Amino acid sequence: MTGFDTTAKSAETAKGAAARPEPGIMPGRERRAARTAAAPAVRGRRPLGLWRLEVLRVTRTRRWLLLLLAFPLLGILGPIVVRHLHRILDVLGADGGALPETVEAQDAMIAYTGVGGQIGLLVALGVMAAALALDHRPGLAAFYRTRTCRPRDLVIPRWTVCAAAVCLANLLATGIVWAEIRWLFGPVPADRMIYGMLFETVYLLMALSLVAGAAAFLRRPVALFGAALIAMVLSPLPRLWKPLRAWEPSELGGAGIQLLGESTPGDFVRPAIVALLLTAVMLSLAVWRIGRREM
Amino acid sequence: MAQFPPLPGAPGAPAAPETGPALHTHGLTRDYGRGTGVFDVALAVPRGSVYGLVGPNGAGKTTLLSLISGMRRADRGEVEFGVPRDRVAVCTDVPEFEPWLSAAEVVELAGRLVHADLRPENVKTALHRAGLSEAADRKAGSFSRGMTQRLGLAAALVAEPALMILDEPTSALDPRGRAEVLDLVAGMRGRTTVIFSSHILADVQRVCDQVGVLRAGRMLYQGPVAELVAEHMRPTWLIRVRDDGGALLRTFAAEDWVARVSSIRPGLVRVQARTVEEGERNILGVLDRSGARVISVGPEESDLESAFLSITGAAR
Lengths: 295, 316
Hints:
Order of helices and strands of chain B: EEEEHEEHHHEHEHEEHEHEEHEH
Oligomer: heterodimer
Number of strands of chain B: 14
Structural class of chain A: mainly alpha
Shape of chain B: elongated
Number of helices of chain A: 13
Radius of gyration of chain B: 24 Å
Distance between the termini of chain B: 39 Å
Radius of gyration of chain A: 24 Å
Number of helices of chain B: 10
Number of domains of chain A: 1
Strand order of the largest sheet of chain B: 6-7-8-4-9-10
């Protein structure tokens, strides 16, 4: 390690600084143009901004691996286990008397959504809680808060990139499940599967926005995870009141299963609207509260 | 003060003047109750100066810097920047970074968050100035506390700030690192305005030309370091003699212009005159009459620490 350079700036840097427009007096339009202009990358890489930082957060902290294990891996196992459940129980010497004689595509989807999807959801909530606990470490919070001028820059990239990773993992897993169902049980209606994937994605976005809502009031990752989990558990309560039953968004979590049965995509439109609205409200709340929060 | 002040150039944001203080606060108050917080602080940091902020533990230094940097909100009062708001860099006493980013990436990110058109040379220069050139590719998570503090300085330097707020920047550094940081800060004088908070008064005296003394959240003194030290210079001399100094002690004690005389250790006598003038006129005559074998005579160095202790009311 070398000592500090206490001399004046290098001539090259000084020249660069002089050539650059004076920050702070740049008109807004020129500032935006400068932000979007292709700046020379440091060491030949893409510039490191808030969005790329979040991509790196997912890749370098191995969170992608957690998502891959929680969603696609369980997606692979679900239909196979269901298809060969009797044989597996025989090998294990367990009694499978209570199980139905024949299993269908819907059972395979239940196996993924009911087990893999739930584990995946827990992992997703944890990953999002870790990303959104931006004031958990004061030094790190000071680093970001003293350098960003808009509260949404603190929240939106973190939430969006993490949510995208979770949704991609879930879509990949559902795609695998679909392929396996087709292979093990025969074809299922493609439009129903696609609608199911769409509604489940909306459900995941809503669940992840609950973490953002928790981050508006709490700082520690464990607290964010716990609060979001409690909110998820309590979210079906409005179903107890009949007029709200058709609008209750937790229904979306099982859309993939029900669409392989007698439900139609139209049954999930109203819950999807509520889920999307809730997502927007939770994100706005997080941006507003985190922007006003003191360290 | 808004948590996220509008960037200069944005609608409603006043253009920063190029003259006058780099930072001004008026009646800045944040009351945490039970006498803690800061109260009616009027800070004036001259442009291009290195301003030392000193005070005992709990005096409100970190609170004041947090109010200035927007990390906390004031109950009342204003903070006025004489430099563009996006050219204010903050380095906290315990900086933290994403442990999975390399040092170069941390510095690049710090720069790009402020200026999207950051040049690669700026990153290299900032790392070089902070003494981290050889650790540029190491992950921040593997850094020692001292290196992390250097990285915090590099992250603050990269955007070429007009005003740097450094909260205890040498607290985790070894003596050599401390000296290097102090040289770095001193080298900024005239180009960058620096607010430098430290418990180590010798550091402040070494690098700062202006000083603000806080106690219990109130500003007790603000002005040039040299003036503060001169104001609190005491008419005291240290005399080193070959023998144990007992006879000399009695000689000085008999003089009516001597306010106090004491033996610090055998052979070293401290003489305090009633006034500087009386001391300067009489001390050599007394020594001549005493017949003592004098090794050295000199005024006791007045320093920021003695001035600080004097105005904060603490005994030395």
